[in-house]
Amino acid sequence: MAIELIQQKVLRLLVEYFNEDIEDLLMELEEYDDIEIDSIYFIEMIPFLEAEYGITIKSQNIHDTANRSFNAFCLLIEDLIT
Q1: Virtual CA dihedral for 70, 13, 7, 79, nearest 10 degrees?
Q2: Cβ(74)–Cβ(10) below 8 Å
Q3: What is the pTM of this model?
Q4: What is 19-79 written as a DSSP string?
Q5: Hey, which residues does 69 pair with through a beta bridge?
Q6: pLDDT > 70: percent of the chain
Q7: Please, which of 14, 17, 61, 66 could form a disulfide with 73 given CB 3.0 to 4.6 Å?
Q8: To the nearest 10°, the Cα dihedral for 62, 67, 72, 77?
Q9: Number of neighbouring beta carbons within 10 Å of residue 22
């Protein structure tokens, strides 16, 4: 699956469920090539992403791999899908 589709899904979840501002997120992504996200948001996304992609995400993987990085989290999801 293309990483761009995963990024779009994660961005959509951040906006819809965590009231993040899409303009701020995109500006940070453009400026820093990544977005710093509180890892609790990643943990709370687990049920949505597991249902969407038919994968199992362990919270420890998020802490070990993604921590607070949007890009690392999306790459983790991509790795679990493939």
Answers
A1: 80
A2: yes
A3: 0.92
A4: ---HHHHHHHHHHHSS-B--HHHHHHHHHHHHHHHT----HHHIIIIITTBHHHHHHHHHH
A5: 36
A6: 99
A7: 66
A8: 20
A9: 12
CA distance 36 to 2: 21
Q: In angstroms, rounded to a whole number, what is the distance separating the alpha carbons of residues 1 and 53?
A: 10
* Identity of the residue numbered 82: T
Q: 66 Cβ partners below 8 Å, 6+ apart?
A: 39, 42, 72, 73, 76
Residue 3, pLDDT score: 93
